[in-house]
Amino acid sequence: MGQLLEQVVNGLQLGFVYALIAVGYTMVYGIIKLINFAHGDVIMVGAFVTFFGLVRGIPWPVAILVGMVTCALLGVVIERLAYRPLREKGAPRIAALITAIGVSLFIENFSSLRIAFGPDYRQFPAMIPRAQWNLFGVKVSSVQVLIIVSTLILVAILQLVVYRTKIGKAMRAVSMDMDAARLMGINVNQVIAFTFAIGSALAAAAGALLAAAYPQIWPYMGIMPGLKAFTAAVLGGIGSIPGALLGAVLMGQAEVLTAAYITTDFKDAVAFALLILVLLVRPAGLLGKAGPEKV
């Protein structure tokens, strides 16, 4: 029983990292119905910026904050240069989707150049002393506590922003009806830029926490976590923040329990099979609402 509970904690650790990434996917989709495939690469940029801060002796909370601010600006730049021109010209949604894939490939390949981060793997320094405690027979590490507590704090702040602030109210209005929101005097472009900024900042935090748990970073490190988080967002119902959190936790549990009790080679297959099974029963995801058009 103790071993099972330890694996559940491991699943929470992984699921909470996915949750921070999935929220970014689902927020952008909820506002402009775009799957921002470049979001996975923002994870990598956040991890690298945090890494450079740590190796220069900056305290880890400040290093993560610098990474979040940097990625927030990166998200705004991506939206302004890549997606807004298409939106203003009324381009078909497939054009925005292909652009997102192009932006993702550009960030990955540019980051691997020597003038940027370089192609090599780098050892991510420990942000906090590694310790382990025994809580009622379950071993919990300091990194797991860091990830779970940090995620809960960030999600709580996000909830406050979305449901208790003026910009959050504007985000919800734009997600319901963009044209009506514009007629009511809401600056839609500003709201969309803010959505990209906050989603990218959360992705940067996820990148730093992911690197803290699995201490190696490289320019292509965001591909698989980004794909898993996107899958989690779809599993929970893309466009729904609670759905993204639920989907991410389920993905993390499925992946870790499969690796622990079946085989590590099968963990990705089980995670994606879970998505297929859920969508067969609920095509809009666990907490999503069915609509006339999904993608």
Describe the structure.
This is Branched-chain amino acid transport system permease protein. This protein has eleven helices and four strands. The strands form two sheets. The chain has a two-stranded antiparallel sheet. Strands 2-3 form a two-stranded antiparallel ribbon. Helix 1 packs across helix 9 and helix 6 packs across helix 8. The longest helix has 31 residues. The mean pLDDT is 90.
Let me know the largest β-sheet.
2 strands, antiparallel
Q: Separation of termini?
A: 42 Å
What's the average pLDDT?
90
Query: What's the order of the H and E elements?
Result: HHHHEEEHHHHEHHH
Helical content class? over 70%
Got a strand count?
A: 4
**How would the global form be characterised?**
globular
Give the class from helix and strand content and strand pairing: mainly alpha
Report the β-strand fraction as a percent range.
under 5%
Strand order of the largest sheet: 1-4
Output the radius of gyration.
19 Å
Tally of helical segments: 11
Contiguous runs where pLDDT drops below 50 for at least 5 residues = none
